[in-house]
């Protein structure tokens, strides 16, 4: 995955709306954390539904702003679009990639990827999906005038051509075996060309709507109130024909209102991104909290490598000083693990046994204040200033920032907080001038598909759009390039593991913890995935009665 700075702004706008009334949380009296073996084995699905449901209300932490896949990136937009629109390839709940709107795909050469389109697929208006629609959709993603988020995901593409009514060929400048993963995400969503051209800039808005092929079609969308989707009676895939006839998506930014709505049944379910109400929800009789695999890692992010964090020994010392078990317990109620690698086990969408073997062979970070103090002394950093960005209006961010200040002060650094409003916290990700005020800040981030490289490349490559500090490691870049150009999945995984180990050694970003994915469902419902696949695949179609 590659993202733009504009895309990060969308992500952090999300964070500003997740402010919790409970404020920061204590890191003391922590319950035990989930074990590594339990975390690696988290289930990716809830129990299958046994019957249909008339309607459901699904909470998002805010209202969606667009349903255009090219310009959407955040939990609300992805959740809604994935319910309605489909990609050439499809992500399974366990992260594997399988055929989607393309019934078959293969590399005819290292620089040519061919797709055979599935017959009988129609858009909601009854028009058949054609190769022209696919070519239009992918080229539209690459159009810089659109200002979309996924053009860089297709940066090795030299041409996209329709070889026939049911055949599309993507020609590449150089081998790219990350591309199928990208085409199982928003970058690969197919929309109807004629409809999109007729709507122009209004496509994806309440005024322009959308035209896709998925199991649900857009119903009434009243901006700021409700976005309704209705079951598509002519959907092509019998395995995903909707069990719930109508789903109403509602933005609920107030955490107390979300908790009350779930408890009373006014809200049927939600994948929660703010965990400040997690303990309360786990104690609520009317709902079940399903814990599943995630793509996410929470990081401590250097804003620059010219100050105190430019010395690797300081970064190593901070990692050693941080109490990850207490943080996991306080923020995720123990449903997170220490990062043996920099990426979450939920990202093992291929060559799983290869990744798992490397994970098991890697040490879990542990707190070692004595060693951390020795590193700070050896670096000549005792008493040096470290400014950490925070916002007291964002509970999860503020908890992390205060924990980092405590860790830094415990090993001899002069650590302090730079507080900004929730609205301005996004500037740390989008504005170099804002980052010049701090040495580091924290965030949770993820890739678009289940491959550790999808996230690593975004902040370690010299042109990576999350590379705020100018970091570069030639060996790391070479390992990523080997992975991207490698057809064999085992060797690709091994090259990615090499890259991940270099990340863990060099700590361009310091991984804090790797949380699970949290699905909250009314106990009368089941069938939705408990994994992070909800961000890209149409799995709400399996939501139905629990019996």
Commentary on this structure:
The chain has 547 residues and is α+β, with helices and mostly antiparallel strands. The chain has 18 helices and 21 strands. It has helices at residues 5-16, 36-40, 75-84, 131-142, 179-182, 193-199, 255-264, 278-282, 312-321, 324-332, 352-361, 369-378, 395-410, 427-430, 432-435, 452-460, 474-484, 489-506, and strands at 53-60, 89-91, 97-99, 102-109, 112-117, 157-164, 167-172, 216-222, 226-231, 244-251, 269-271, 287-292, 297-302, 336-337, 385-390, 414-419, 440-445, 510-515, 517-522, 525-526, 544-545. The strands form seven sheets. Strands 1-10-9-8 form a four-stranded mixed sheet, with helices on one face. Helix 9 (312-321) runs antiparallel to helix 12 (369-378) and helix 17 (474-484) runs antiparallel to helix 18 (489-506). The chain starts with a helix and ends with a strand.
Task: Tell me the span between the first and last alpha carbons.
Answer: 39 Å
- For the largest sheet, list the strands in their spatial order: 1-10-9-8
**What is the makeup of the main sheet?**
4 strands, mixed
Overall geometry comes to globular
Strand content: 15-25%
Query: Based on helices, strands and strand pairing, what is the structural class?
Result: alpha+beta
C-alpha-based Rg, rounded: 23 Å
Q: pLDDT below 50 for ≥5 consecutive residues: which ranges? A: 1-31
- What's the number of helices? 18
Mean pLDDT: 92
Give the proportion of residues in helices. Answer: 25-40%
Q: How many extended strands?
A: 21
């Amino acid at each position: 995955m590659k993202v733009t700075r504009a895309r990060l702004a969308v992500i952090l706008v999300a964070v500003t709306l997740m402010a919790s009334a409970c404020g920061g949380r204590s890191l003391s009296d922590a319950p035990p954390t989930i074990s590594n073996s339990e975390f690696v084995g988290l289930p990716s699905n809830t129990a299958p539904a046994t019957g249909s449901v008339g309607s459901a209300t699904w909470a998002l932490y805010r209202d969606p702003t667009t349903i255009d896949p090219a310009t959407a990136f955040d939990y609300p937009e992805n959740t809604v679009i994935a319910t309605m629109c489909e990609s050439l390839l499809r992500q399974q709940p366990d992260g594997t990639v399988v055929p989607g709107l393309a019934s078959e795909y293969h590399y005819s050469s290292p620089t040519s990827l061919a797709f055979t389109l599935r017959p009988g697929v129609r858009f909601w208006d009854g028009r058949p999906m054609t190769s022209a629609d696919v070519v239009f959709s992918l080229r539209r993603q690459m159009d810089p005038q659109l200002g979309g988020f996924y053009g860089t995901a297709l940066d090795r593409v030299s041409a996209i051509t329709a070889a026939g009514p049911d055949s599309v060929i993507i020609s590449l400048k150089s081998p790219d075996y990350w591309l199928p993963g990208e085409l199982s995400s928003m970058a690969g969503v197919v929309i109807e060309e004629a409809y999109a051209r007729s709507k122009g800039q209004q496509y994806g808005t309440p005024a322009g709507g959308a035209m896709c092929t998925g199991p649900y079609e857009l119903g009434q969308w009243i901006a700021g109130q409700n976005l309704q989707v209705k079951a598509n009676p002519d959907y092509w895939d019998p395995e995903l024909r909707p069990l719930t006839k109508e789903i109403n998506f509602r933005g609920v930014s107030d955490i107390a209102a979300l908790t009350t709505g779930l408890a009373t049944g006014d809200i049927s379910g939600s994948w929660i991104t703010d965990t400040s109400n997690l303990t309360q929800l786990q104690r609520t009789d009317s709902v079940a909290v399903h814990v599943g695999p995630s793509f996410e890692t929470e990081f401590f992010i250097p804003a620059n490598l010219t100050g105190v964090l430019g010395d690797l020994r300081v970064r190593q010392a901070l990692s050693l000083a941080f109490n990850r078990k207490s943080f996991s317990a306080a923020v995720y109620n123990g449903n997170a693990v220490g990062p043996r690698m920099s990426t979450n086990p939920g990202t093992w969408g291929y060559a799983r046994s290869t990744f798992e073997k490397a994970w098991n062979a890697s040490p879990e970070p542990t707190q070692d204040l004595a060693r951390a103090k020795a590193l700070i002394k050896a670096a000549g950093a005792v008493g040096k200033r470290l400014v950490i960005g925070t916002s007291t209006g964002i509970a999860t961010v503020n908890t992390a920032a205060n924990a980092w200040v405590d860790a830094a002060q415990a090993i001899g650094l002069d650590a302090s907080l730079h507080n900004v409003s929730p609205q301005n916290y996004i500037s740390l990700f989008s504005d170099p001038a804002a980052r010049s005020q701090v040495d580091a800040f924290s965030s949770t981030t993820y890739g678009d598909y289940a491959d550790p490289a999808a996230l690593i490349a975004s902040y370690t490559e010299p042109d990576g759009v999350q590379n705020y500090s100018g970091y570069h490691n030639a060996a790391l870049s070479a390992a990523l390039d080997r992975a991207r150009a490698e057809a064999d999945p085992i060797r690709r995984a091994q090259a990615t593991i090499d890259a991940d180990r270099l990340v863990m050694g060099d700590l361009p970003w310091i991984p804090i913890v790797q949380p699970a994915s949290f699905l909250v469902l009314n106990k009368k419902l089941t069938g939705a995935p408990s994994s992070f696949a909800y961000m890209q695949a149409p799995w709400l179609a399996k939501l139905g009665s629990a019996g």
